[in-house]
Design a protein that fits this description.
It is a single chain. This protein is 23% helix and 30% strand. By secondary structure, the protein is α+β, with helices and mostly antiparallel strands. The protein has one domain: Peptide Deformylase. The strands form 3 sheets. It has a 5-stranded antiparallel sheet with strand order 2-3-4-7-8, with helices on both faces. 33% of the residues are buried.
Length: 186
């Protein structure tokens, strides 16, 4: 089932998420719904807060980027309670966008090499070092679990320049090609 994506300004996007316990009700269905929602929205990653769930759950399907970024080829990941270690390496600035911040993209500096520990949807533990654009996708999605958005990593000047666009998103004056949910009216 396609779920609405919560947009910038909704409080759920700014909350730190809770760990997912084994036996979480309807987890497999939720994961399937998240993959369907992400694909229908033409995204490569989706975190649970983006569908209104305050839990540490992320789905990634980066295969579509495999021609340009070989590390993404065939990569489909369900990340439950992920933990990230930033490994040595310089920060690289690349453009990022987000389904919760539609119509915008900004350059964000991130390290290119990480180590990730996570549970899959069967609660099997995994550990892997990741590099390149796949590492960027993971970092972007894990930020959501800590109540952060990619725009939190841009300079104050850039944020000032896009302030009116962000306000339009938060006030429901943005159109998307996918179902959305705006912040509640005050």
């Amino acid at each position: 089932m396609k779920l609405p994506i919560y947009l910038y300004g909704h409080p759920v996007l700014r909350k730190e998420c809770e760990e997912v316990e084994e036996g979480y009700p309807g987890l497999k269905e939720l994961v399937a719904d998240m993959y369907e929602t992400m694909a229908a929205s033409e995204g490569v990653g989706l975190a649970a807060p983006q569908i209104g769930k305050n839990i540490r759950l992320v789905v990634i399907d980066a295969d579509v980027l495999g021609d340009d970024f070989p590390e993404c080829a065939g990569r489909r990941l369900t990340l439950i309670n992920p933990e990230i270690d930033i490994l040595d390496g310089e920060k690289i600035s690349r453009s990022e966008g987000c389904l919760s911040v539609p119509g915008l993209s900004e350059n964000v500096s991130r390290v290119e090499h990480i180590r990730l520990n996570w549970l899959d949807e069967d609660f099997v533990e995994h550990e892997e070092e990741m590099s390149g654009f796949l590492s960027r996708i993971v970092q972007h999605e894990l930020d959501h679990l800590d109540g952060q958005l990619y725009i939190d990593h841009i300079s104050p000047i850039r944020k000032q320049l896009i302030r009116s666009k962000l306000r339009n998103i938060a006030e429901g004056r943005t159109r998307c090609d996918y179902p959305t949910k705006y912040a509640p009216k005050k």
